[in-house]
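Re: your question from the hallway

Yes, I did run it. Sequences:
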Amino acid sequence: MEELKKALFALVAGAVTVWTFLVPDAPMFNAPEFARMFFWHFPCPIMLTGLIAAGAWSSYRALAGGSAREVWDLRAVAAFELGLIYLVLTMGTGMLFSKYQWGAFWSWDPRQTSFLIAMLMYGAYFAVRSAFADPEKRAANAAAYMLATLLPQLFLIYVYPRLPSVMSLHPSSTIMGGQLHGGYLYVMLANMAVVGVLTVWLYRLRVRAGLLLLEPYGNLEDRRRPAGPRVVRRSVPLPHEGGADR
Amino acid sequence: MRVESLGKRYGRRWLFRDVTFDLEKGQRLAILGDNGSGKSTFLRLLAGLLTPTEGRVVPPEGDPRARLGYAALEMALYAPLTVDEHLALAADLRGCESRADELLDMVGLDHARSLPAAQLSTGMKARLKLAMAVQTRPTVLLLDEPGAALDEKGRALVARIAEEQTQRGTLVVATNDPIERELATHEIVLE
Amino acid sequence: MNPQGRWSREVVAVLRKELRTEWRTKTGLMTGGLYGVCLVLTVVFALINRNVNYFYKATGDHPLQDVCASLIWSIVLFASLLSLPRAFLAEEENGTADLLRLMARPHAVFWGKTLFNLFQTWIGGLLLGGLFVAAVGLDVRHPWLFVLCLLAGGAAVAGAVTLCGAIVAQAANRTALAGAIAIPLLWPLLQWGVAGLQSAIGTGLLRDGISAATGMVCYAVVGLVVGPYLYAAVWKS
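Structure:
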């Protein structure tokens, strides 16, 4: 059944990919045939949004402590690892788009720059993780740092490029402003669904793999089974008890 | 103080697991074990300085900063601050009176009040830590190798403090010293 | 004593300890202060033999006017990154963190140290900013905005860098890491800071400077409100 699902997904993804090449070129772009990059560029920050939300929630739960801290930390790191990949893909596809549409790979556009800073925050998050050998400290401190960067991240990615005083070349109302219609809209939605399914699948796979790696440290359902050194407790009467002199 | 299913792991290595006991007023517990068996870690868990991997420590009722006293050899002091300033800082942070005159007289540091911690000997630092530990008249006193840096008078001081503590609450000592071991009514051996 | 009184007593105790330690050891002065002064002098060396004052008065154009806002913030930021994280790193390095954990509550410790860092940043920022302006012979058109930007930016830097120092205090390579992880957090602040100082110097619009200063104040408030709670979560070993 699993194999059938995977085969079906591969078929649908392939069909959507072919479909992206079948829609007509977009005449208003400088390189009309390259407008297709939008189908791969747009879903990336959308998935990133979901992963930021999942990662932030998992970080909060990891910070709250408790016996499931390592599991929540695993979920957080899975979300941020995938988030970093999507961030890099957003930047990469965006830079290609920028080259053909605006004439340069990098224009110090506010939206490009804000994503670069967000990427640095992710890099710093993984640097914090690598600095702690103890898994509990790693989970707590990494979660604290990610929550500290959450508001700046959200501001940089969603608020700053849309400020009236900020002049950005990047369009901001392609979907909501109804600028996408006809074949392009349907292809974009189909691709979004494919990328969404892929994201959820990769996330769950990463979490499952991480849970398997947690096994040697003490089975999560069997933590009560003693596996450490013996502890002996015995009463030792004081020498002078019962009236005896020292 | 109550300890329920306490366990601590560092990486893959469990120091101890499933430790449960109650400490009643008047009891004195010695924690024994070889070097590296986890005595200091155990004591730090009781003091609330570490988070347990499993289980929990139920401290005595009230503000743990006032109810728990802790002194350890490896605990450092603030080098630029004087003896008096250490006691004043502790009192301000814990919301109690400093009792500097009484405590420094008890531990024999009256003559060194204005010396910065950097100029104190190891034994003098140990005495200052004892003074800070008993400043709030704690219900539970935790001492890690209290006599390690002390001379004979210092060890007698520890015995006196242990006796006073028994009237007030409980004492927990992590030690390898046979004399300090004799202060205890109960033992826990980490093997 | 009521809870508010106790809390303020604890915060003041931590602040007093930090001030005493700094007064006796001069660590912050030796690291951040000296570094900042050296940076200012380095900039000044570029202007030697250029008769800046003469040409500035004649033409109204200072050779550094387009970049001086960035230079001032670079100097203030890197001086802060050297000295501020020490508030928490030094506790772990000197082994005194346990003493503090035994006696104090995390919110009081965070506020006490952040207040100390705040004073350090304000004094350092105003002194270094003033020294820079005096050394290069720059006219500041709106001195009140200049001071406001340095104070607001300094507060935001103090909050963010103190929190980063607290987070990595128990890490392996804490000294290098504290500054490194603070920089991404501070870039939005730097953008505002540069815009604010440009307006204060007169190379930007006043209204842009005021909105930049407002942004920095908000950033500082958020950082100072959220910081204690995050610190409390990583407080114990």
